[in-house]
Design brief:
Order of helices and strands: EHHEEEHEHEEEHEE
Low-confidence stretches: none
Strand order of the largest sheet: 1-2-3-4-5-7-6
Mean pLDDT: 92
Number of strands: 10
Strand content: 25-35%
Helix content: 25-40%
Number of helices: 5
Oligomer: single chain
Length: 232
């Protein structure tokens, strides 16, 4: 089997990369990021990174240049891996490549948003990369994306120069349960989970906690998002 190679996506592959990203996010034409926007933003400091098996694109990550409180950052707009290639660490390799390129440019932080019930994604971001869940945005894109049901988003911040947060003995920590695979739930049950996550996560974040890890429960149908109170 041909090994996976991580490299920048050339102009000719951007249409395919945009289609892959839209499919992974469940976006229609209205919400998809146009390839020409990807080209323009990468020329202005963004990143379009692909995972290739031979000549075939099997994964893609895309980030915009951003300015936050006068500091240059990246805002990651999506991570996609072809369905048949999932479960082999390609998503993690793409994020690590994104980190390496950002560090090489002197960019200290990458931030993005995510579905608060997307357990596999949150586990990658928090437990494997060392990013943190720092905010909750109820209905962030309501009326702007063509979802039938408005969804909430959580804010993820990846401080590229910071050591992974160590949980000291006796730390003030609380777990919030989320479904292991929200896609398997009927809409009514998924909505109940979303309301519960909104209530619990918002309260914890308002009280000075941040999300630092995700663990899967032994029973297999739930995951636990670990929240730790930030040091004064």
């Amino acid at each position: 089997m041909v090994d996976i190679v991580i490299r920048d996506v050339p102009r000719r592959d951007l249409p395919e990369a945009a289609e892959m990203l839209a499919g992974s996010l469940g976006f229609g034409v209205r919400d998809s990021i146009p390839p020409w926007v990807m080209l323009t933003t990468t020329e202005a400091g963004g990143l379009a990174i692909g995972a290739y098996r031979g000549a075939r694109l099997v994964g893609f990550s895309y980030a915009l240049p951003a300015l936050v409180q006068g500091r240059a950052e990246l805002f990651s707009c999506g991570l996609a891996v072809a369905e048949r290639e999932r479960g082999h660490g390609i998503g993690r390799r793409l994020k690590l490549a994104q980190r390496d390129r950002a560090v090489a440019r002197g960019i200290p932080v990458i931030r993005w948003t995510a579905d608060p019930l997307a357990a596999p994604a949150l586990r990658l971001y928090l437990s494997r990369l060392g990013a943190e869940l720092v905010g909750y945005r109820s209905g962030l894109f309501a009326g702007l994306r063509a979802h039938a049901v408005p969804q909430d988003d959580v804010e993820i911040v990846w401080d590229l120069g910071a050591a992974r947060r160590a949980e000291p003995p006796g730390a003030d920590a609380i777990d919030v349960d989320i479904p292991a695979d929200v896609r398997r739930l009927v809409p009514r049950t998924a909505t109940q989970w979303r309301r519960r996550a909104r209530r619990l996560m918002t309260a914890l974040l308002d009280d000075g906690f941040v999300g630092t890890a995700v663990d899967r429960e032994p029973r297999g149908d739930r995951c636990r998002v670990r929240f730790v109170r930030e040091s004064p």
